[in-house]
Amino acid sequence: MPLGYSLEIVSPTEAMFDNFSKPTTVLEPCKGRACPHAGKFREARKKIRQIPNDNLNVRNSGVSRVKGGHAVNLQDVNLLKIETHACIELIVPIANRMIQQTMRLTGGLSQKHWLACERRGAIDPGDNPFIPVTGHSVVRMQTPVRCEGDLYNGKRCKNLR
User: Fold this and answer.
1) The dihedral of CA 107, 113, 116, 117: what is its sign?
2) CA distance readout (Å), 89 to 15, 115, 133, 160
């Protein structure tokens, strides 16, 4: 990703996965007599762990505390929350320098995204400064969350860090 741009998955976290994931039977390809009813798939011998997302309206909606102190339920865990950060060039004359100086004087330098934009401006010196812009996205997931890396035990998930 270019300097000054970042993408962070806020939810679901690994703690949420640990708390809400369930062992689930999935299908695996098969051939010949091993396939029931002359099909092409059978139930896998080993169950994988995933956060269920079907029939949420009839599942337990009880709240649970996860690591970090957040109180969430299964419906909350099925929301994908993403935060993106970008350094945008301020091209408005005069106001751009006023905004930059105000950010410097009011403690903007303590924010990691502001510092990334300052570094971007140092590498890409131009007539205009860069300022941090943050965007938030929330989407209900359409498929169950599975642990990338360890499907069966659900530990050290690459996609939930």
Assistant:
1) negative
2) 37, 14, 10, 32
Asked if residue 145 lies in contact with residue 79, where contact means CB atoms within 8 angstroms, the answer is no
Q: What is the pLDDT of residues 70-119, one digit of tens each?
A: 789 888 899 999 999 888 888 888 888 888 788 777 766 557 777 778 77
* Three-class SS of the chain: CCCCCEEEEEECCHHHHHHHCEEECCEEECCHHHCHHHCCEEECCCCEEEECCCCCCCCCCCCEECCCCCEECHHHHCEEEEEEEEEEECCCCCHHHHHHHHHHHCCHHHCHHHHHHHHHHHHCCCCCCEEEEEEEEEEECCCCEECCCCCCCCCCCHHHC
pLDDT digits (tens, 9 = 90+) for 12-60: 888 888 888 888 888 888 887 778 777 788 888 888 888 988 888 888 8
